[in-house]
Write a structure and sequence with these properties.
This is GMP synthase [glutamine-hydrolyzing]. With about 325 residues, the protein is of the alpha/beta class. Helices cover about 40% and strands about 20% of the residues. The protein has a 5-stranded parallel sheet with strand order 3-2-1-4-5, sandwiched between helices. Strands 6, 7, 8 and 9 form a 4-stranded mixed sheet that branches. The N and C termini lie far apart (about 40 Å). The structure holds xanthosine-5'-monophosphate (XMP).
Length: about 325
């Protein structure tokens, strides 16, 4: 019988059988999947779990602190937080090609993660939040039949020299199942039902070159959009909503002054499978409020636009 409690019991038995009394390492991303793995492993093996959380500087507003509050404080998990913002931004400096940005972010993540892991002794296992759709998608990408539109960096295994064995307790589960066991394990609803966030984070929502100024601007705008969606009770009605930073200057007027500043685009979609999507027909009043708040509260934004492109032809992310 499929109940969250049964799935958890079964997963815990399998984790015990697989890792025995060994120590396990997990990369926490801030997303639902790795969060559920962390909660599951904590239940299964207690303090034999160590997590590494790489803050790449491309997370949403307050996300890093929230991860620490949820896991380190609330669940008592050992979490090593690595502040790697400067390193990621340094690597990304001057790069504007989306796929190259993805590769760099993925590679830098692995470098940082490995350096941290190398300082830990006696760890034999690496846990990952791979879920069933990730398995299918990466299988398809390898056949040459499915066009690889974007490289996802959370699947594909480890560098040879890391020599950790993999434990992937969510490998057979769909997203809604992962969420249900997350709730059963006591994770906060906000975290469990949060919209998906790409591995490269704001790196692919800042079009072109990634800078700290752009990331800070985007974080504030995104936060306002999400806050207003929640306030209007529409957050759970859309599958994904976010702001995008456009490095295009447009003229605006602030007070008595003419401003020549970047544009923020808002994207909200309805979809079940993320393969196709319809742009969310959000109420004009809501869009109006979000726009006013962004232009008034976020420094150096001259204009806000709403993306009305479906998928296809538009992808959900802009890069
Ligand atoms: P697209 O933009 O391809 O997005 O329509 C479909 C879903 O995938 C997410 N996405 C990514 N997730 N790494 C990820 O982990 C990526 O590079 C990446 N690119 C897109 C996107 O947010 C949406 O949910």
């Amino acid at each position: 019988l499929w109940t969250p409690a049964n799935i958890i019991d079964d997963a815990i038995d399998r984790i015990h059988a697989r890792v025995g009394n060994d120590q396990v390492l997990l990369g926490l991303s801030g997303g639902v999947d790795s969060a559920v793995v962390a909660a599951l492993l904590t239940r299964a093996i207690g303090d034999r779990l160590t997590c590494i959380f790489v803050d790449n500087g491309l997370l949403r507003l307050g996300e890093g602190d929230q991860v620490m509050a949820t896991f380190a404080q609330h669940l008592g998990v050992r979490v090593i937080r690595v502040n790697a913002e400067a390193r990621f931004l340094d690597q990304l400096a001057g790069i504007d090609d989306p796929e190259q940005k993805r590769k760099l972010i993925g590679a830098t993540f692995i470098d940082v993660f490995e350096e941290q892991a190398a300082q830990l002794t006696d760890i034999h296992w690496l846990a990952q939040g791979t879920i069933y759709p990730d398995v299918i998608e990466s299988a398809g990408a390898g056949t040459g039949k499915a066009k690889v539109i974007k490289s996802h960096h959370n699947v594909g295994g480890l560098p040879e020299h890391m020599q950790l064995k993999l434990v992937e307790p969510l490998r057979e589960l769909f997203k809604d199942e992962v969420r249900r066991i997350g709730i059963e394990l006591g994770l906060p609803t906000d975290l469990v039902y949060r919209h998906p966030f790409p591995g490269p984070g704001l790196g692919v929502r800042i079009l072109g070159k990634v800078t700290k100024t752009a990331a800070d601007t985007l974080r504030l705008a995104d936060q306002i959009f999400i806050e207003e969606l929640r306030r209007a009770d529409l957050y759970d009605q859309v599958a994904q909503a976010f702001a995008v930073f456009l490095p295009v200057n447009s003229v605006g007027v602030v007070g008595d002054n003419r401003q020549y500043a970047p544009v923020i685009a808002l994207r909200a979609v309805e979809t079940l499978d993320f393969m196709t999507a319809r742009w969310a027909h959000l109420p004009y009043e809501l869009l109006d409020r979000v726009c006013r708040r962004i232009v008034n509260e976020v420094p150096n934004v001259s204009r806000v636009v709403y993306d009305i492109t479906g998928k296809p032809p538009g992808t959900i992310e802009w890069e």
